[in-house]
Write a structure and sequence with these properties.
Blueprint lengths: L1 H25 L3 H42 L1 H5 L7 E6 L5 H13 L3 E8 L10 H10 L7 H14 L8 H9 L1 H10 L3 E3 L8 E5 L22 H15 L2 E6 L1 H6 L1 H7 L5 E4 L5 H14 L5 E2 L14 H13 L1
Parallel strand pairs: 1-2, 1-4, 4-5, 5-6, 6-7
Antiparallel strand pairs: 2-3
Helix pairs in contact: 2-12, 4-12, 5-8, 6-8, 6-9
Protein name: Copper transport outer membrane protein, MctB
Keywords: Coiled coil
Pfam family, one: MctB
Length: 330
C-alpha cells in the first residue's frame, strides 16, 4: 500500500507540474518568453543581413580593385621584365587558361618564355623510381644520398643550371653542365611534360592546381613507405628552387589561398612570393609584378585574400629609375 501511495503521489506531482507550466506559459510568462525568443530571432536576422552586406561590400571592393589593376596593366607591368627569360611551371591540374594568361602578361612586360613545363603527380615521388634514380645518379654521382632529396636536387639543377646544394664546388660545376641531360631524363621518364626546348633560367612562376587542396595532402604514397606526402614534396621543392633562383612566384586562385599551395607557403613563411586571385583578370598582372619585385630583392604575398600583404607590390627602384630615364630621353 505504501508503494501504491508513493506512485500515486508521484503521478499527481507530475500532472500538477504540467498544469502549472501550462498556466504560466499561457498567462504571466507568455509575453516575456515570447518577447525573448522574438528578440533573439530578430538579432540573428540582423547579424545575417549585416554579414550579407559586409560580404557584398567586400566583393564589390574586390571587383573594383580587380577592374582597376586589369585596366592599368600597361602602366603596371609594361617593360618591367625588359628581356628577362621566365620559366613557367604548372601543377598537374593547373587551369590551362590561367597558365596562358600568365604567359601573355609576361610577354606584355617584355619578358620571354624560356620554359613552359607541367608537373605530373609523380614528378617528385619515389614511386617506381629505382631506374629513374639510377639514371640521375649516373649523370650526377654527387647527388644527395637521400633519394627524395636527390630527385628534388636533380630537378632544380635541370631548371636553373645551378647546383649550390651540393657540398663540393667541383661537383657543383660538373652537375651544372648536366642540366640539359637531367631535364631530358625527367621528360623521358614522363615526370615532366613540356613542348619547349630546355633552357635554364633564374626567374620562375609556379601555378598551383585549380581549386587546390594541397594543404590536406600530407600522406605518403601507399606504394612507397619512404615517400613523403605531396604537400611536403612540393614545399621542399619550392624551398630548394627559391634557394637557387633569383625570383620565384607561386600563384593560384582563391582555392589555393584557402587550402592550397599559396596557403601553405604563407603559413610556413616561405621566401617565395605568393599571389592569389589567378581566377581574376588582375591575378596574372600581380604575378608578373611580384616576379619583377622579387628579382629586385623584395619578396612578399599579394592578392585579395585576408592574409595578403597588399594587392600588388610597390614599384621597384630599378623600374622607377628606368621610367625616369625614359622621361628624360623624351
Amino acid at each position: 500500500m505504501i508503494d501504491f501511495r508513493y506512485h500515486l503521489v508521484s503521478l499527481v506531482s507530475v500532472f500538477l507540474a504540467l498544469a502549472v507550466g501550462i498556466v504560466l506559459g499561457a498567462g504571466p510568462l507568455k509575453e516575456p518568453i515570447g518577447e525573448s525568443l522574438q528578440s533573439q530571432v530578430d538579432a540573428l536576422r540582423t547579424d545575417r543581413d549585416n554579414l550579407r552586406s559586409d560580404l557584398d561590400a567586400a566583393k564589390g571592393n574586390i571587383d573594383k580593385q580587380n577592374e582597376f589593376v586589369t585596366a592599368a596593366a600597361p602602366e603596371l607591368i609594361g617593360g618591367i621584365l625588359d628581356g628577362r627569360e621566365v620559366s613557367i611551371i604548372a601543377a598537374p591540374d593547373a587551369d590551362s587558361e590561367q597558365v596562358e594568361e600568365v604567359s601573355n602578361r609576361v610577354k606584355e612586360a617584355d619578358g620571354t618564355i624560356a620554359g613552359d613545363v607541367s608537373f605530373v603527380p609523380n614528378t617528385l615521388s619515389l614511386e617506381d623510381s629505382a631506374a629513374f634514380l639510377e639514371t640521375l645518379r649516373t649523370l650526377v654521382p654527387s647527388l644527395p644520398k637521400d633519394d627524395s632529396t636527390a630527385i628534388r636536387a636533380a630537378l632544380v639543377i635541370a631548371l636553373t643550371g645551378d647546383a649550390s646544394m651540393l657540398e663540393d664546388e667541383d661537383n657543383q660545376a660538373d652537375a651544372g653542365k648536366q642540366a640539359a641531360k637531367l631535364y631530358d631524363a625527367f621528360v623521358e621518364a614522363d615526370r615532366l611534360r613540356t613542348d619547349t626546348d630546355h633552357k635554364t633560367t633564374s626567374l620562375f612562376i609556379v601555378i598551383d592546381d585549380e581549386n587546390s587542396t594541397l594543404a590536406e595532402d600530407t600522406e605518403p604514397s601507399p606504394q612507397n613507405s619512404d615517400d613523403k606526402g605531396t604537400r611536403t614534396l612540393v614545399t621542399d621543392f619550392i624551398t630548394a628552387l627559391t634557394a637557387e633562383a633569383t625570383s620565384v612566384v607561386v600563384a593560384g586562385d582563391a582555392g589555393s589561398a584557402q587550402n592550397g599551395l599559396v596557403n601553405v607557403l604563407r603559413t610556413e613563411k616561405s621566401r617565395a612570393s605568393t599571389v592569389d586571385g589567378l581566377g581574376l583578370g588582375a591575378g596574372p598582372v600581380i604575378t608578373v609584378r611580384a616576379l619583377a619585385s622579387g628579382e629586385a630583392g623584395s619578396h612578399g604575398h599579394f592578392g585579395f585574400a585576408e592574409d595578403a600583404e597588399g594587392i600588388l607590390p610597390a614599384k621597384t627602384e630599378e623600374t622607377s629609375s628606368k621610367d625616369t630615364q625614359k622621361g628624360d630621353e623624351e
